[in-house]
Amino acid sequence: MDATKHAGHHHDVHSDSHHHELNFWQKYIFSTDHKVIGIQYGVMALIFLFLGFCLMMMMRWSIAYPDTPIPVVGKLLLSVFGPEAMPNGAMGPDLYNSFGAMHGTIMVFLAIVPLAFGAFGNYVVPLQIGAPDMAFPRLNMASFQCFFLGGVVMFSSFFIPGGAAKSGWTSYSPLATFAERGYDWNGQTFWLIGMVLLITSSLLGAVNFIATIIQLRAPGMTWMRMPFFCWAQFITAFLLLLAFPPLEAAGIMQLMDNLAGTSFFLPSGLMLGGTTPVPISGGGSPLLWQHLFWFLGHPEVYVLILPAMGIVAEVIANNTRKPIWGYKSLVYSVFALGFLSFIVWAHHMYLTGMGTKISTFFQTTTMIISIPSVIILTCLFVSLWGGSIRFNTQMLFALAFLPMFGIGGLTGLPLGFNFADLHLHDTYYVIAHFHYVVAPGTIFGLFAGIYHWYPKITGRFMNEFWGKTHFWLSLIFMNVVFQPMFLQGMHGMLRRMYNGGATYAATAEQIGLPQAILDLNKWVSHGAWFLGLAQIPFIINFFWSIQKGKKVTSDNPWDATTVEWQTPTPPPHGNFSKPITVHRGPYEYSVPGHASDFTPQTEPVKGSKH
Amino acid sequence: MEIPYTDKARPDTGLFNAKVGIWLFLASEIMLFGALFSAYILLRVGADPGTWPQGLLNIPIGTFNTAVLITSSVTVVLGWASLKMGNFGAYRKYQAITILCALGFLGIKSFEYKDKWTHYEVWKTDGTRMTGHIEGSPWFWKTETLTKLKLESIKFTPDATHYNDPKTHAADAKADHGTAHKEAVEIKTSEIKRLSAFVPAHSTFFAIYFTITALHGLHVLCGALVIAYILGPGAKMWKTNPEQYMNRVEVSGLFWHFVDLVWIFLFPVVYLL
Fold first, then answer.
1. Chain A residues near residue B3 by CB distance under 8 angstroms
2. What pLDDT, on the 0 to 100 scale, is given for residue A202?
3. Under 8 Å between Cβ of A288 and B43
4. How far is CA A271 from CA A181, A280, A289, B200, in A?
């Protein structure tokens, strides 16, 4: 006991000594405060989101107008990447492949996951469970630093000889090993090293999140009083924790294939544009890579979507002014999703010839996983019933999330059936399907989150008019971009072609893609560029509001029930000015007999000691 | 600001933060090594019948190394137990043995590695192949090395048996690898189709063997470094916050047991099967 007393005393002294002013570097760059780290994640992720979008806008030019010099940026790209990659200022196929691979990689691993999990999770989860910080603040800092380094490695690969990785974000072997055989330290090597850093980052983050949620919930914050957002992040962290390591193992093995000349993923008798086999030991399995990749790849889909679902649930509860319908169903469904997402991965591999029995198994699990997804979506839809809805910007985004994610999910069913997938595999239909889930789905959820928590983070509101402009334009152009792709895909137009399928155009002599389908490329590309323009109101609003936005008049400007709104604005280091005790569930809106239409979780229950 | 439950257990979970953290980390480690073991299984099952190299690793040395690691597992738990009973001196002795065992393991492993890197297989143009040693025991030679060094022939001491075909030499089969040799022969460079040391590029067996044991070796090294840090410069905490110090020792011990456990699986899989 003496030792403990002694230790406790030491702690007091220690925390007192912390009151000295931190300098700029300690405060903003090497911070261990979960809120600063969350903002660091958010800012970096938004930058990466923008860069990934820019890559896509240039690719869309090549798809719509193949072999034509790119306006505005063509000359710049020519001077950066050289005439081989950019013949006459038009995008060459190799550069297109690089951009395509990096668009996917950047959007998934450097933009959406860091924004959904790194930024929102870091900032909001400890506040919502009433914790002073994350369980391991220094690991949290290391997590961001690994992410940052991974991003730097990924980006620098554009400027090395041979250019960035060009084997798709899935990096299938043997293509990934031989795409740039001329250089040992090629884009693929950079990609793999970058991935190892990003995996380390999310591993540290995942351990931290789970430990924080298990250990640092405030008194009274029982499991079933946790906001749904925290549940979503909790399951997401488990997915990252358990699904990413196999990709790390696969990454190490592919790195060995590229650098040490092994044949993990290279079959015997492999020939490259000749008649003599490549001098390797052989005996490896290209399917092994695909299994390991998709073992991550499919849970990753839920890593992308669950945090957005969490945000949408928070925003809907807050703006319908009534409890979420079926809170328990939501929680159990998210558990089911998390578990099932580990046993559906091979539905990405129907075309590999892995056998009908295995295909049938994965087809079955894939159909089963749609049940919890539909339960979640249904709960959120039913929550709207009878509410007096406040249509502010975040609510608009959250409402649009529901049908957009619905479209994304339902169009996934034909892909889950192996007989339908044989036709649709690797076409624009797939592109449209998963972009509906991630772009107007997840990204709309994330936008809702930004508009919702912005006042807590900065102490000012974002502008409503420009927010709504941003919303409506984004909604329209998202659909302009992705709806036609379903049609193109169903006509059999393949993805990953730098000229948008012009090679397979129908002529008088041969069956091919009808001209009308090819012409949709131009329509889609214009949609994408206008979608880019539609983000300008957001960008300006985002920066302008930091200084000039309308000031909040209370710490709880949305009249919300959850604990994060009980902090000072913005929350100081350590978060809460007084100890927090939780007395009730997360969504006690419009409780009959209560004076206001919301009851904060921290408000004691009358006539009860707790 | 203080983070709760860094030294004391949270009453309802019964755990302090770092213990939750390390178990989660170990779960992800299981997935990492699990993926590599799965790769091993898939590659081996997919290999053409009779081509999977067997019996190329030195079982007595591997067994000895297993014993070394198991010893370290015992001492690491004895060290923690001594500390829990307040016996700092005994704890230091036990952990010192742990670290010595770790270094011993790595030393023996590097000896094994070197043994493989100087051990060669030659595929001749006439379709025969043999394993053995090149005169002077050079490291890492491959087919291109011969042309690069402009060698017209190499002096090669073949092993008594070939790993894929031990039965045809039943008389020599009892002899240990690398010790029983046939007469040295001269092999012309023009007769050599492929030459490879027992390096990862030799075959998928050595690819997975080196990848998985090197990753395990890295874990041994990191674990030993952490234990050494806690034992050395980190020991100041024993005076200021003994509760948390014991937690650290416990957590590093958990990691150490995991590293040992991986080897317990690894040893039979790559050495014996």
1. 132-133, 135, 137, 216
2. 95
3. yes
4. 13, 10, 19, 21
**pLDDT value of position A162:** 86
| pTM for this prediction | 0.94
What's the pLDDT tens digit per position in A374-414? 999 999 999 999 998 999 999 999 999 999 999 999 999 99
Distance of residue A533 Cα from the nearest chain B Cα, in angstroms: 42
For position A273, what pLDDT does the model report? 82
CA angle A148/A127/A132 to nearest 5° reads 85
Closest CA in chain A for residue B52: A283
So what's the pLDDT on residue A103? 97
Measured between CB atoms, does A22 come within 8 Å of chain B? no
pLDDT by residue (tens digit) across B137-180? 999 999 999 999 999 999 999 988 888 876 554 444 444 444 55
Structure-token pair, residue A425: 């595999």
Contact of A211 with chain B, judged by CB distance below 8 Å, is answered with yes
Q: What confidence tens digit (pLDDT) does each residue in B21-72 have?
A: 999 999 999 999 999 999 999 999 999 888 898 889 999 999 999 999 999 9
Do residues A253 and B38 lie in contact, with contact meaning Cβ atoms separated by under 8 Å?
no
Chain A: residue whose CA lies nearest to B241 = A7
Asked if A369 and A415 count as a contact pair (C-beta separation under 8 A), the reply is: no
A227's CB contacts (< 8 A; 6+ apart) are A128, A310, A313, A314, A562, A586, A587
What's the CATH fold of domain B35-41+58-116+203-272? Four Helix Bundle (Hemerythrin (Met), subunit A) (1.20.120)
Q: Give residue limits of the domains in chain B.
A: 35-41+58-116+203-272, 120-197
Q: Report pLDDT digits (tens) over A536-582.
A: 999 999 999 999 999 999 999 999 999 999 999 999 999 999 999 99
Sheet containing B185-188: give its strands across. Answer: B185-188, B153-158, B129-134, B120-124, B192-197
pLDDT at A12 over 60: no
Considering Cα of A500, then A504, then A507, then A513, what sign does the dihedral take?
A: negative
What residues of B are in contact with residue A256 (Cβ under 8 Å)? 200, 207, 211
Contacts of A284 in chain B (CB under 8 A): 43, 204, 207
Q: Are B28 and A207 inside 8 Å of each other by CB?
A: yes
Beta carbons of A170 and A145 less than 8 angstroms apart: no
pLDDT (0 to 100) of residue B2: 87
* Residue A16 reports pLDDT greater than 50: no
- Chain A residue numbers touching B25 (CB-CB < 8 A): 203, 207
Is the distance from CB of A590 to CB of A388 less than 8 angstroms? no
CA distance B120 to chain A (A): 14
Residue of B nearest to A292 (CA): B35
- Contact check, Cβ <8 Å, A292/B35: yes
Q: Which of A4, A245, A256 sits opposite B35 (nearest CB)?
A: A245
**Nearest-CA residue of chain A relative to B202?**
A281
Q: Mind listing the domains of chain A with CATH numbers?
A: 33-267+281-566 (1.20.210.10)
Q: Do B1 and A3 touch (CB under 8 A)?
A: no
Q: Does A608 have pLDDT greater than 80?
A: no
Which residues of chain A make contact with B215, given a CB cutoff of 8 A?
Answer: 252
Question: How far, in Å, CA of A409 to CA of A393, rounded?
Answer: 24
